Amino acid sequence: MTRKKKKQGQSEYFFDYSLLFIVLFLLGFGLVMLYSTSSYEAAQKYGSSTYYLEKQIKATILGLIGMIAIANIPYHFWEKFYALGYAVSALLLLLIIPFGHESGGAKRWFRIGGLSIQPSEIAKICMILFLAVMICKMGKSIRTWKGFIALVLMPVPIVLMVWKITSNLSTAIIIMGIAVLMVFVASPDYKKFIVMGLGGVAAVALVVFYIVNAASADSLDYRGNRVLAWLNPEAYVSDTGYQTLQALYAIGSGGVWGKGLGQSMQKLGFIPEAQNDMIFSIICEELGLFGAIAIILMFIMLIWRLMVIANNAPDLFGALLVVGVMGHMAIQVILNIAVVTNTIPNTGISLPFISYGGTAVLFQLAEIGLVLNVAKRIQLKEG
Amino acid sequence: MQNNKKRPAEDTKGQKTAKKFTIFMQKKLLVLFGLVLLAFVGLSVRLMWINNEKGEKYSKQVLEQQAYDSITLPFRRGDIVDCNGTSLAVSEKVYNLVIDSYQILDKESYLEPTLQALGDCFPQLDMAAIREYITTHPESRYYVPLKKLTYAEISAFVERQNDTGEDENGELKPGNYIKGIWFEEEYRRTYPNGSLACDVIGFTTSDGMGMYGLEEYYDDILRGTTGREFGYLNDDSNLERTTKPAVDGYTLVSTLDVNIQSIVERYIKEFSDEYANNYTEGPAANNVGCIIMEVDTGNILAMASYPVYDLNSPYDLSAYYTEEEIAAMKENDTYYSTLNELWRNFCISDTYEPGSTFKPFTVAMGLETGVLTGNETYECDGGLVVVEGESPIRCHNRWGDGTVSVKHAIASSCNVALMKMSFAIGTDTFLEYQKNFNFGLKTNIDLAGESRTAELVHNADTMRRVELATGSFGQGFNVSMIQMITGYSALINGGYYYEPHMVQQIQTTNGAVVENIEPRVLKQVISESTSAQIREYCIAVCDPNYTGNTGKTARPAGYMIGGKTGTAQTLPRGNGEYVVSFIGFAPADDPQIAIYVVIDRPNMEDQTSGTRCATGIARNVLTEVLPYMGIYMTEELSEAEREELEAKKLEETIKYAPTVSGGDAGGEDTPSDNGNGTNGNRPVWMDFEKDPVTGYLIDPETGAFLDPETGDAIEGDYPAIIE
């Protein structure tokens, strides 16, 4: 809660303890909820109730070390790696084809000595870095149509690879979303984005319309079925709608104050892998609306802190990095809660800092480290 | 927090110009933040909406899903044991093999070791099919390829499965990789003695319902209560697990004695094998039945009939029919009626006309009411005109028995004498005693399927002079075997009518007594003195030294017994089909057991000679059963008898022979000429010419052979007694 003070004569630098504490709180809270949610399944499947917790704690500690390290590296150090980052992301995604590890029907991971790494998580942070550098380089040409389109098209190859190679549409959407948000902030225009937004809404409406009117559910792929299940989860309770409906049961049965920490019944095998994408529904069930809104408020504070840091960043590059991280956090939290509440069709998006997932927490903490370093560069002048 | 929030904002103002992050970008960032906030507000509203609108419904749904979580625990059906504790029916725990594909496929390293172990331990499994099932049904959690395995069959697998831990090299033992296989417990009913006492015991259906016999009659006692392991939600909506254990069924201790039962079944089978396809293609008789009862308790020691079936596979008809025949039966819908015929207990479910075995009952009626004293004599000339103008009702011996006493009427089985007695007794007394002896009523034996005979006996409205006359020698009404032997026991035990029963005790699984079923005297039907007279007459039937009696061949060597033979006509009269039987008691001086053998239509050209088979079965059975029961011989053994017993290798039996083996007292086959004087007149037929080849007497009119003992025709035409 205090600022790091330097001796007289030197300018005062800022360390954003607020952000750090929000993140630490979310991590701590996440681990508690993760244990509550996963202990039953872990005990059933692996004979140890702390199986998931232990793995997550290891990743979290590793992530915190990484975060502190990155927070102490001047962020301009990363500037020169922007192209390399982009290339590495693309290469890793391509390497999945021959070397990827398949789990749960999708090929998304590399297994290196017991650790599984998801290249799409790397792609997110690389994309933030890449676009921040590109926007800085572009300068005022961003205002032109040409510049705008060039910027928007830059992430597309990576996005397509994430979508097609790892068949992970949600991460592809997140990466694209991060890019659009960064361009939106950097570009002074509104019209283009309104047009884009309306176009996007129209496209989505068209797709939904097509799926609803398709001859039968059999002719659709699993995404089409998920859309149908989204519109009417009760009708698809035996397959695609099951998880969504169980999550809704959890939310609905929680009430205002919840059943109490650890008292969820839906985690007892009814919500499969509740510790992953559906953890928010267990939070709702155990802690009720109160707990859920408290967590939403924590995320709002996190995003607000990120905005403030971006606004005060010493330069555009730093600001854009923070905007990218902010966009990432915002999109992922909003989409996750939207999926859990069946506001949008079911797609696998984890809740930052809380959901189970080693690579995710590692890179999310790396992003926070980056932000902390940007925040550190904010010079405070004695008023 | 409050402090911090403000400070950077202040900084912003101061450093505006130094940044490239321009004011419009800041504005747009604010817009973005606004949009994000809006999204969060929207989602919060959605959360609240879900809670408000669907909260109640979803809460119920959550509880409903939990309630499904329960497992039934099978109970163990009670055993059935005989009076010595030998198992007749037992329930053993068996195991169903359950495959959980989902768990096996959880890790790649599980599949192969698991399949390997399954293949090694259960060679009867088609491993290719199992592999295919697991790979094509990865979500399946319950697949049962094998059912009702014994513990011995699964023990090898269980051992491998439990062989977890690490070996000396620190490697995980193979048991760690065998996953997704478990065994579901169940009970299987088995009958260790196969077909022994099948009609008495009955069997159970695959879903545990008792069918026929004790299994059906005592179904509610043998059956326990299914237990349940279930989860429920307590007041705090926490899931709790409770087990309500299964309650095992009670054990029945039967009055049956497996040893006696198997002796009886052995001789029934011997007869059945010997006479199968004898005269016509087909079994030795329509039915053969035998009951042995303890006369002073009503306990059934043995009850058997032929044909038999294996209780462990009651639907297997292959012992009696070829596959083609069975297939044909299935097509024309006679399959189940054939099975029912096989399963039904002849001894209690079938009725027939008893014939001459009823004669002691008629005599007892006369003696008990004082109408007869026992000193009467009757003239028999081979028939009696009952109703003026109609043809006479014949005696078994068309030449007549001459002058017969009451005793000789029983001993030689004279119909005419009995008819005359019945006229003295009268319809009312006859019907009263018929009811007293429970004819027309159920005996209430504790077995399923006892027949109802109320419509099969005469009542005051239907009984005329003819019915009375024929009824006196056991024709014209129907009885079941159990009615006959129960009544006969009362006749010779001093008049006490005991309720017949098969079960003497009900126990818990641990052997604690739940209920003792004591012998129950229902009534005294005749007096001790009448009973003593009937015993005397019945002994005369089997007495080897008595002339002209019918039951010598039933007497086992070394013992004295009493009894009565029966050769009953069936409907329609004159069809040449008979139900032949022997009912008797042993030993003569102190009756312990009664035995009743019935052969329903023996497969012989002349079915009346089947009576010898009935007495033969009784003789063979008693020869083994009496020594087994610890009853000592009272009569001296002839050389022939001694040799016969030794040939049978019945060392046990020999032990019960009298210690002094004196001179030859005359074999039973050598009729003694000095009859004991009760038969005053020598019957006509006794002076007939003897056939030199067979030793039979020759009927001068028809040329038919006559039995030199009884005067009965050996073969030939039999005039109808009554139409």
Essential attributes:
heterodimer, A: 383 residues, mainly alpha, 3-stranded antiparallel β-sheet, two-stranded antiparallel sheet, 4% strand, globular, B: 723 residues, alpha+beta, Penicillin-binding protein 2a (Domain 2), Beta-lactamase, 3 domains, 7-stranded mixed β-sheet, 5-stranded antiparallel β-sheet, 23 helices, disordered N terminus
Overall number of strands of chain B: 27
Radius of gyration of chain B equals 40 Å
Low-pLDDT windows of residues of chain B: 1-19, 660-680, 715-723
Estimated helix fraction of chain B: 25-40%
Please state roughly what percent of the residues of chain B sit in beta strands, choosing from under 5%, 5-15%, 15-25%, 25-35%, 35-45% or over 45%.
15-25%
Major β-sheet of chain B, in short? 7 strands, mixed
**What's the multimeric state?**
heterodimer
Portion in helices of chain A: 55-70%
Task: Describe this entry's structure for a reader.
The complex is a heterodimer of chains A (383) and B (723). Chain A is mainly alpha-helical. Chain A is built from 13 helices and 5 strands. Chain B has 723 residues and is an alpha+beta fold. Chain B folds into 3 domains: 62-92 and 187-254, Penicillin-binding protein 2a (Domain 2); 101-179, no CATH class; 258-311 and 326-504 and 520-665 and 679-706, Beta-lactamase (3-Layer(aba) Sandwich), CATH 3.40.710. In chain B, the strands form 9 sheets. In chain B, strands 2, 3, 4, 5, 10, 20 and 21 form a 7-stranded mixed sheet that branches. In chain B, strands 12-11-25-24-23 form a 5-stranded antiparallel sheet, sandwiched between helices. A 3-stranded antiparallel sheet of chain B has the order 1-8-9. Chain B is elongated. Chain B starts with a helix and ends in a 17-residue tail after the last strand. Mean pLDDT of chain B is 83; it is low at 1-19, 660-680 and 715-723.
